[in-house]
Specification:
239 residues, globular, binds D-ribose
Length: 239
């Protein structure tokens, strides 16, 4: 079980709700109806379960969503919090892959992940020989839906093939973007979990700006829950 699934299971226990109805973007108070007392109880349960020690007050005050608790567990458990390529058992921030057309942009992004502090797993390819992008889309998609990576990044020449392929995998919401506003809205409105980029369309700096926005923007259910309802309707199309 991934850390994310495990945390959701604990939250479900404390709030006496079904884990199936809890998503990483859910706000404890607005979406899950939790009280401040519930949140404190939950943090104590998490500390005990993962032997984390006492959570500092400033970290506690920042907890608003389920994803924040997952992030808290990751940040405490990652030795020194150092950005690096992870071992295969570690949940990472980003699973990344490309085809041959995207390999240079991928290398640039991986170097930036290290500087920026994102943990990642590079699922290939390692060299520039011609490959078929669906194979690499599937590798990243699988890591994201299993919870082994929080988000995915896929790069091909245009990003189009990768996005079509990734969106065939149940549970993936892949967004093809070429500027940061779309990257942000893909998170806020669509709860996208995979970002697709076109190496023949954008350069290194624009790609970094897109990933930055994608990784730091939360899903917003909407004041009347409309974005959540729409994402649920997308999920209904998968069954
Ligand atoms: C490879 O030439 C190219 O077709 C691929 O990278 C991608 O752009 C497909 O959508």
């Amino acid at each position: 079980m991934s850390t994310q699934d495990d945390v959701i299971r604990l939250i479900a226990e404390v709030l006496e709700q079904s884990p199936d109805e809890i998503s990483p973007g859910d706000h404890f108070i607005e979406d899950l109806g939790a009280s401040s007392f519930d949140i404190v109880t939950l943090v104590m349960r998490i500390e005990q379960h993962y032997a984390l020690g006492e959570t500092p007050d400033d970290a506690l005050q920042k907890i608003a969503t389920v994803g924040d608790v997952v992030g808290l567990v990751h940040s405490v458990r990652q030795v020194g919090g150092e950005a690096s390529e992870a071992s295969s058992s570690q949940v990472v921030d980003i699973a990344i892959a490309s085809d041959h057309a995207g390999i240079e942009l991928k290398a640039g992004l991986v170097a930036w992940f290290r500087r920026r502090g994102f943990t990642y797993v590079d699922l290939g390819p390692a060299q520039g020989a011609s490959v078929d992008y669906p194979e690499f889309a599937s590798l990243v998609a699988t890591r994201v839906v299993s919870g082994d990576a929080e988000r995915g990044v896929l790069i091909c020449g245009t990003g189009i093939g990768m996005s079509i392929a990734a969106n065939k995998v149940r549970g993936v919401r892949a967004a093809l973007v070429s500027e940061p506003v779309s990257a942000e809205l893909a998170r806020q409105h669509n709860d996208a979990n995979v970002l697709c980029l076109g190496a023949r369309v954008i350069g290194d700096m624009m790609a970094e700006r897109c990933v930055e926005r994608f990784m730091t923007t939360r899903f917003e259910a909407g004041d009347d829950g409309r974005h959540r309802r729409r994402v649920q309707r997308i999920q209904a199309l998968e069954s």
